[in-house]
């Protein structure tokens, strides 16, 4: 990511929107510069294209009221993201 857009992204607070339509889920990450959207089905592998050009292979599951995404990058490193969904909003 080029220097100026990276600085602007660091200064802004992204907004997350999570929605579902039946078994299809969508997570939108909205920033001043761009909006990224990924749609998936729980328990099925899908790809997520990151701003720096990296492609992650993800599987998202539901644990209680939380969405848990396990991501594997091209270097086979594993990262877990937990979206805690409460009545007040979403925490990552």
TrEMBL record:
Molecular function GO labels: lipid binding
Superkingdom of the organism of origin: Eukaryota
InterPro entries for this protein: Calycin, ILBP
Family note: Belongs to the calycin superfamily. Fatty-acid binding protein (FABP) family.
The protein's name: Lipocalin/cytosolic fatty-acid binding domain-containing protein
Lineage: Eukaryota, Metazoa, Ecdysozoa, Arthropoda, Hexapoda
